[in-house]
Amino acid sequence: MPTLDLEKIKKEIFDSQLWRSVFRGGVWKDTPRDRAGHIIGNVWLHLHPVKVRPRALKWAYTWGMGGISFALYLLLTLTGVALMFYYRPTIGLAYRDIKDLEFAVTLGMFLRNAHRWAAQAMVVAVIAHMVRVFLTGAYKKPREFNWGIGVLLLTLTLFLSFTGYLLPWDQLAIWAVTVGTNMAGATPVLGNEGPLGSLVGMRINNDVRFTLLGGTMVGENTLLRFYVMHCVAVPLVVGILLILHFWRIRKDSFSAAPYAAAEEKVDVWPHLVKREYIGAAGTTLFIMIWSILQNAPLEAIANPNVTTNPSKAPWYFVGLQELLVYFDPWIAGVLLPGLIIVGLIAIPYIDTNPKGIGSYAWKERPFANTLFLLGVVMWFALIFIGYALRGPNYAWYWPWESWYMLKAAPPATWSVFGPKGVGAYPMLLGIPLIGGLFGGSILLPKLIQRELSGKKLMGGFLAAVAALAAVGMAMGKMGATEGAFLLFFLGASFYFGFVLPQRHIRTLDWPRYLVTMVLVVCTMGILLKMCARLTFNIKYLLTIPAISMNV
Amino acid sequence: MSYRKAFIVSNALMLAAFVWAFAKDFNAPWRPYQKKYYQMSADVLEKKAADEKDPKKADVLKAEARKMRHSPMEIKQIISSDLGRFDRCVTCHVGMDEYTNPTLKNDFTQNPYKSHPKVDSALVKAHPFTKFGCTSCHSGQGLATTVEGAHGWIKHWEKPMLKGVTIQGACVKCHGNFETLKGAEVAASGKKLFRQHGCQGCHAINGWGGVISVDLGDIADKPFERIAGYNFKRVKIDGKELPDEHHDSHWNIQNWIRGHLVNDPVAVTPNDPFAHLNAEPIPPSGMPDFTQEIRREEADAVVAYLSGMTKEEVIPYRYHVPAPAAREPQLSGAAHGKYVFEKYGCQGCHGLEAKRGRRRFNASSSAQKEYDPKMPEKEQFEQMSLGAEPTLPDLMGTYTHEELVKKIESGVSAADAKKWSPKGPMPMVYMPSWKGKISKGELDDLATWLLSIAKKDDSGF
Question: Which of A99, A274, A285, A439 is most open to solvent, judged by the fewest CB atoms within 10 Å of its CB?
């Protein structure tokens, strides 16, 4: 009776011409040569090095967020391509195709949910990745350029998500995109509503918003443009930048930490690859379960004649929308996001602190970490306010208040400097005064060469503000809420905008110091403008209607 | 956990999640209904086969039963390309699917299994399902395959299935002659009531009627976002608040219209007469209170009629049946004047038979107390509500025939209103100019009738 010799069969299969032609490298013996061969012999795995520093493998160090972001990108590509088989980007068919996916296509709802939720998760994962890289100082020399590519990838992730938002062609979609693209119309010079726009001949039908929309309002052309950008143009650019990003990571040998004496690299196969697989599998599992349990939103079919109230941008842009309460669109929608992007890219070039590379060094990088986290917290706090606390007519509603209870329109606002200002102080006084204040705040911390006591400074400042508020309240000019706002916003901007820089970066060289302080003072400007609005109901500090310039 | 274990577990879990997703998709809500329909029909056929004496016929029936029992599960749909509909209703309501049930009849009594009622009636015969689909008449979401979704009982589907007599509104969509149709009696009575109470005095329909308020020619398409910002909280039907939010789709256009007839519209749309929320006072709804004149069933009839007022649907021209030419009654003099009064909806503001002017919020009238700014708001509101349109017989006595004709022709502009509370809102309702709308002969007779009912001033002046 012939026996079944498994070993022999295995050998015959693995040694067959067919097998050998597909998988090279002979029988797997788990030698270092085998492991290296696995990476080198595979075009996909070859973006990895053969060996990697062991500290780059620690979950507590990397959070796995970069890998998870890429896993989500792959997941989105996969589900996105599947969805493309069912979706036609015309206003007559788009909404119906989504309904078909929901009700008639096998696994259509699941696919759409997975695509939707993975997109939201990717925005969060990419931001978390950036926060992690910042906190571990992993952007410092020689990784400055790769950090910049990362910032571009974050921007493109948001843009991908934004362009996809329009495709279901429901009320949620067109009004969110209307809010988003209207901000583009306020771009300085290039937008018809932006400062200087009309001077260079920008009209509603030739400016940057028109280019984006393919019309003067969200319509058929916009849908096609967003579809092509979403499915082809932007993913291509993202793909190219991703390869660059990964290649640089490989060339810069993963972890940024200085080498320890007895550090020995380990094989990427299996040590890194298995972790990547588990991260990706966990992410996929998470998205799958989320997609089974919760359906993606779909509202009534888009109707350009019926504005939803409130109309909100996609959640990751709601923070900027919230800033529209305090700033003109060109500032909230163009200048500030532009400053954020440019500022983020500039960080590695202005941060000369050699310490705190490759570890969570809170004590060694107090200024960088505090200011960066302040920015992140402000970004998400504004999102929370805009998303959860704004109701009909964009009025403030606490979570326990019903949106059916209508609120009074906000009281009339006033402007400090400018022809229409209620105070009506002349513009010529306002420009030097506000410019001087801005410039002074930038220069002052460096001009005081002696280190001041933070506690005494803060104590004195808060006492002064409290006294001011008390006087204001006694005169009946403000209530307790306004007083609290004054204390909070002025205190915060004084601490982050003066005390901290004075202590930590006054010794920085002038060019780096100036760039840093412009970014810091602009951030404080947001807090101060919020304070001016909430406490004194000021709309503009300075308004120059001739060139639509309002601050 | 080692990575080897994590690898196996995560793969197993992903597979399990996929199976879960697939099972959820596979066990779509429509499936049990369709399955049960096949079983029930097969049972009926088998019973017939058992009762059949002729073995050949019995075999045929048995084969039919077997085929029915093993019919494939599928999403069935009626594609009505003319009317732009893809109605998947027959996926569950299999008895109404001509391919599965060619006779369109069965003995089941329960939905969704039972067949369409009255399939032999002229009404159904004239509207074959394969040509018209389901939602052309019934409304609802034809593309959906879930119970809530298909009936339109979800938040973002604004045309839920029409309930009860309201479905007669569907006749109005295409049939200009619906008043002569069997089966559209309620809608016809709705139109009659609409005219009788003078709604057309303020609300035009497709351009015919007054200009005081909105044209109701497309009222059935009114987006809910425009209904006080999606707020039905103040609409009470039979004295009860509607079930919260959108359950079973009670927040629909039918209840919005009905709410204006069975409530005082001022309670439905109170707005902001004391400028609490806005810089300027905004008067409440200018619509009169019809609760004393129109009963609940009558309100339902008006709702049925207005449910057919849609412009959203693209109904090909050949589907429309024109109305017969309007016939004017052969009247003359004061009798014709009274007819003219009702034809143009004057009673909408001046009351049935011009007996009593209706409410004109914050207009000054003799029934009110002297305005006093210190009066509490509630009392002020009551006083403002006492403002009224002129009660014509009290007023007409001092007019000559020519003056009266001129007055009706020119109207009274809203700005000429005398307000009771100078701080309050401008009265909403005003007398529009009827010049060119009411013909010269009609005007003469109208004036004749009005003067005939005017109270004569016997005091010697």
Answer: A439
